[in-house]
Each structure stands twice: as C-alpha cells, then as structure tokens.
Design brief:
- The chain has a six-stranded mixed sheet with strand order 1-2-3-4-5-6, with helices on one face. It has a six-stranded mixed sheet with strand order 7-8-9-10-13-14. It has a two-stranded antiparallel ribbon with strand order 11-12.
- The N and C termini lie far apart (about 50 Å).
- Helices cover about 25% and strands about 25% of the residues.
- By secondary structure, it is an alpha/beta fold.
- It binds fe (ii) ion.
- Fe (ii) ion binds next to loops.
Length: about 240
C-alpha cells in the first residue's frame, strides 16, 4: 500500500494518504485546507488519483480540504451520516466497507468525542481521529460529546482489535506518530491499565479545558465540507 502521514503544525493534525499500488487510486483521511497544495504535489509525484476524502468527524480545530479537493480533483467526500455534514457525497454508517482498488476501508462507528465520529480500519491499521489519541483521547464537552459513549466506543471498536494493530490518531501534541492497541490498553493515561467506565466518566467530567479557539469558524465551515461562503455583495 502507498502510505504517507502528513502533519499540519497549526492544529497538530495528522492527515493520511493511502493508495492502491495497482490501480493508483488513493484516499486522504482528514485533509486540512491549508495543505491542499502539498497533497496535490504528493499525489502527482506518486502518480496517484484521489478518489475519496474521508472525515473521521466534523472538526472543531481546523477546516477540512474536502471541498477544495472535490473542486480541483473531483474527489468525493465521505463522512458519517450523523456528523451533521449533509454536504458529504457518501454518508456512511458502522460496518460499511469503502473499497478503492485493493484498499478495503472498514468504517467503525466510534462516537463520544462527537456524535458522528468514525474510525477507519485498513488491514492492521486503524485511523482513530479524535476518539483515541496516543496516550489520551478526544474531549467530550462539545459537539454532543459523551464520556460514557466514548469509553464504550473505544473498548468495543478499537481495544477489541489484535494488540499489534497500529493506531494512527487525528492529532498529536507531543511528537508521537503511531502507537498500537496493546500499548494504549496498557499505558493510555485516561483509559489504560483497565480503568473502569465510572472512573473514566468522572475523570473526563472533571477536566477543565479551554474553549476551542477555532470552533466558531471551523464548525460551520466543516458542516459544509470546508466550503467557505462567498462574501455578501453590498453588505
Ligand atoms: Fe475533534
């Protein structure tokens, strides 16, 4: 499989390029609008055609490149049907497989950070968005977040995979790039060591986190797949 992990430092976001070596078709998971040129250069250099952009959820901290890539390369946007982004071309649910050449991308519904979060499993890798981070997890105090739901999602849909499954998260703030299910089950600061659901819910509800800086700009833009409304004439 063709594979590359990109990092956007402004929002500490990871974007992933996955490509089929035979058909040269590719997808991008969680592309960021300000890096469109980087993605286009990389696709070009590898001789790949972008077929889909896959969102793990509607992001509150950056604007998606889904619409810009749709306009420029003709890719289709994939998002969970409950994400609140009806601009998506393909609205998916748990258990759907998105097949692109030899890539078989399994959609696993992992709500709790938001009500429309999914993780994407491809072979021995899972792209967890903001559900499970390396050593942590997404916040649960905005966008219909719920700590009990997040705990159940992580245990049922991610920790149930083999221990050597690779975890590729949506963000990292400490320089990590990849982990494994086994390492997170053992060492994750919020969920590791067999932490109980009750303890996790208490821990998450006691976090005193700052209001997300970009949420008022990013949420409405991402509900439109990153399409920014043109300025009003004469207003
Ligand atoms: Fe998020």
């Amino acid at each position: 499989m063709e594979f590359r992990q990109f990092f956007e430092p402004g929002s500490s976001t990871f974007t992933y390029l996955l490509g089929c070596p035979q058909t040269r078709q590719a997808v991008l998971i969680d592309p960021v609008e300000c890096d469109v040129e980087t993605y286009m250069r990389e696709l070009d250099a590898r001789g790949l055609k972008l077929v889909y952009t896959l969102e793990t959820h509607v992001h509150a901290d950056h604007v998606t490149a889904a619409d810009a890539l749709r306009q420029r390369l003709g890719s289709k946007s994939v998002v969970h049907r409950d994400a609140g982004a009806m601009c998506g071309d393909l609205l998916v649910t748990d258990g759907v497989h998105v097949v692109v050449g030899s890539l078989d991308i399994e959609v696993r519904y992992t709500p709790g950070h938001t009500s429309g979060c999914v993780s994407y499993r491809v072979g021995d890798r899972i792209f967890t968005g903001d559900a499970l981070l390396i050593g942590g997890c997404g916040r649960t105090d905005f966008q219909q977040g719920d700590p009990g739901t997040l705990y159940d999602s992580i245990h049922r849909q991610i920790f149930s995979l083999p221990d050597d499954t690779l975890i590729y998260p949506g963000h990292d703030y400490s320089g990590n790039t990849v982990s494994t299910v086994g390492a997170e089950k053992a060492h994750n600061k919020r969920l590791g060591g067999g932490r109980s659901r009750e303890d996790f819910v208490r821990l998450m509800s006691e976090l005193k986190l700052a209001y997300p800086k970009q949420i008022d700009v990013a949420l409405p833009a991402n509900q439109a797949c990153g399409r920014v409304a043109p300025p009003q004439q004469g207003a």
